[in-house]
Amino acid sequence: MEGKKKKPVGIMGWHQMYNFGSQLQLTALTYIIRQMGYEPEIINYKPKQEMYRVRKNIFFVIYRMFRKLHYVGNPEYLSDIKRNIFESYKKENLCFTQTCDLSSDLYMLNDLFGAFVCGSDQIWNPYYGDDKYFLNFVEDARKKIAYGVSFGVDMLPNQYVSGKYQKLLKDFSLISIREIQGKEMLSKLGIRDVPVVLDPTLLLDMEKWNDLFQIQSSGHGDYILCYFLGDIRRHLKYINKIRNKLQKKVIVIVTRERDLKLPFEMYSEIGPKEFIVLMQGACFVCTDSFHGVCFSVIYKKNFWVFERFKRNQINNQNCRIDSVLKILDLEHRKIDGKRSELNELQIEWREVEKNLTKMRKKSYNYLQKALYTAFAATNKLHVGITNTCCGCGACQAVCKYNAIEMLKDCHGDSKAQINMKQCVQCGECKKVCPFREKENLTDIVCTRYYSFQSKNKEVLMRSSSGGASYEILQHLSQQGYLIYGCVYDNESESAIHKRLKREELYRTQGSKYLNSDTCNVMKEIFQSKKKFVFVGTPCQVSAVDKILKNRGMRKSAVLIDLVCHGVPTNSLWYRYLCEIKEKLHTSKSVNIVFREKKYGWRNRVMVIEGKEGGKYKRNSTRDLFYCFYNQGNCLEEQCYECCFKTKTAADIRIGDYWGNKYRFNKKGVSRVFSVSPIGDHIIDSLKERGSVKEFSIKDFFMEENCVNLVKPVYYDSLQEELENQKPLKKLKKIYCDGWYIRHLYRLKGFITSYRS
C-alpha cells in the first residue's frame, strides 16, 4: 500500500477496443511497469472520435448509421458476445481507475499519479484520435511519457491535423515511437531524434507470457492458424497452398460475421488468453495483423503476413507491419499479392532473436529511464485550472489570497489563471469548480417533467418560449428573494449577470446565446446572507451550489438552470458583430434580439437595430452567427466536455419544449424540470400564472439529443481564422457546408444515447 502511494503510474491506452492486440499490449505494459517497481493503473476513459474532415462522404455516414441500428435490433450479434468475453478478461487481468468520461474527470488524476504513460497502439491515429491520448490533461509536462505510440498511417491527412499535432506534442519531453515511419512524421512536425521502441507485447518472451496465463508449452501443433482483421477471402488461394504443402487443418479466428461460412474450423467466442493458447499451439500462422506478427515472433512460429490495405488507400496502415518486419529483418515474410510461390516456409530464428534481444534491451531501458525522470520531477499538489474552465469566477470568489485572476484567453473568453507566487495550495478553488467533483448533481431521470405556457400575452411575446423563467422570478421576487439573472449589456456588447430589481426582471426575458460574465455576482453571493434566486447555465449554477454548500447556506437559495446547447467563443461573436455594424454603417452599440418572437416561436430570427437607423433581420438558417452556433463547431472548449446534459445541481431546469408535442403551437411552450421539493412548490405556484401539464420524463429523451457534440479537429484553425478577421461568409463555405452530414451525426448520437 505504501508503494502504491509513492509510485503510482497512469496508463492511457485503448482498453475499449475488443481486439486481442489492444488488450495484450496493455497487459504487457502493466506487467513491465510493475516489474520496475511502480504501481500501474489503466485510465478508464472511452473516447469520442473527433471529426477530422469538414466534408465527409454521405454514403459512408449513412452506412455506419444503419449498422448501429442493426446492432440495436440484434443484441446477440457476434460483437456483443465478444464484448462480454473481453470485459471479463479486463476485469480479471487489468487494473483500472474510476470511470473518466470527461476532461474534468481526467484532471482529477493529476493528484493521484506521479507519472503518465500513453501507449502503445494507434492512439495517435488521426482517423480515430482523441486529444486525451496526448495527455493534454496532465498539468506537469515532465510527467508525460509516450511509449511506443503509433500513428498507424504513413502521413497526416491535412493541414488541420498537422497543426493540431504540433501544439499537442510541443510540451512532451519524453517521446518514443513504435514505427520508423512515425519517427519520420515527427521529424516533419519539428520533433527530432525520437527513439523507435518495441510494442509492449514484444518486451515479454515466450516463457513470461506462458507464466502470465499459466499456459503449458506444447511445441508445434497440428494446425495452421489464420488471424485476419481484413478480408480473409482475398487470401484463400495462399492459405490453401500452405495447407496442401503442410497437410494440416486450418483454424480461423473469426473477426467478421461473414467469415463463419468459410470451410475451416472456426473459433469466434474467444478472448486474449485463448488467442495466445491458439498461437502457441500452431505449426504455422497466416495473418494480416500487427499483433499477429508479434506473437508469431514471440512463439517462434513460421508465418506469412498479408497486406490488409491497398497502397493507395488514404488510411493505409501497412506501415505498422512494415516497420516491425524491418526492425527484425523479416521483410521477406510479407506477401503483397504479386508472389506466386511459397517456398520459404521456415524462418531462421537465430538472427531474429539477436535483433529482438537488442531492441528489447533498448526499449526496456528507455521506459525505465523515462519513469525515473518523471518521478524525479516535483510532486507538489497541483491546483492548475483545467481546460474545461467555464469562466464562472467561483474559484476567484473563494480565494482568500487573491491568487486567481480572470483573464481573456486567445479566443477572447474569460478563464481563471493562478498566480503561483501567491498561491498557498489550500485547494479551496477545487471545492467550488463545477467541472471537478460532481457528486452534488442530480440525474434528471429522477425529476418531474412539465410543460408551461404563461397566460399573460405580453410576457409570452417577450419570452423565447413559454415564459416560465420570468413567471418564476416574479413569484419569488414577491416572496422577498433577491434576483440574480442574465441580461445583455449594450455598452460592453456582452451578456452579464447582475442583481435585478423587480421592475428590471423583463431584461432577463429572451435568449442570450453567449457566455455571461458572473465574476462580480459570484463574489457577492459568497458574502451574501440573504435568500436569493440565481438563474444561469448548468455549470454556473453548479458553481453557486458548491459555494453555498461549503458555507452551509444551500437552503437559502433557489437555483434555476437552463437546457444548454453550449456557448460560442467570443471570437465568433465579436467577428459577427463587427460585420453586422459594417452593414448597418455604424460604429456605435446596437440593440440585439436573438430570437424575435413576432416571426414565430420556432422561426428563430436574429434582429439587430442600429441606434442611428438601419435594421438587420435574418432567419437562423441564413444568419452567419447561427450557422456556426447551431452546428456546434465554434463553442467554448468546456462545452464539448459538458457533464450537465442530463445532470443538474439546480432546483429547477427550464428550456424550450421542442419536439412534436407542441409542433403547431406558435406562441411558445417551456419545458420545466422539478428537481427538488422547492422546485415542486414553485411549480404549484405557476398554476395560477399559466397552463401547467405534467408528462413522462421519457418524452424529453425521445425529443432531445443528450450527447455532447464532438469537437472538430479543425477547431483551432477556425478560431485562428476568426481572430485574423477572415470574413464569416468565406469561413462558412469551408467549415459549415454539408449540413446534412452534421444532422446525420446528430442522429447517430441519438442512436448511441438510446442504446445506452
Notes on the structure:
The chain is of the alpha/beta class and 756 residues long. It has 3 domains: 2-202 and 361-376, Rossmann fold (3-Layer(aba) Sandwich), CATH 3.40.50; 215-358, Rossmann fold; 442-703, no CATH class. Helix content is 37%, strand content 17%. The strands form 6 sheets. It has an 8-stranded mixed beta sheet with strand order 18-17-19-20-25-26-16-27, sandwiched between helices. The protein has a 6-stranded parallel beta sheet with strand order 3-2-1-4-5-6. Helix 18 (468-478) crosses helix 23. The longest helix is centred in the middle third of the chain and has 28 residues, at 349-376. The radius of gyration is 29 Å and the shape is elongated.
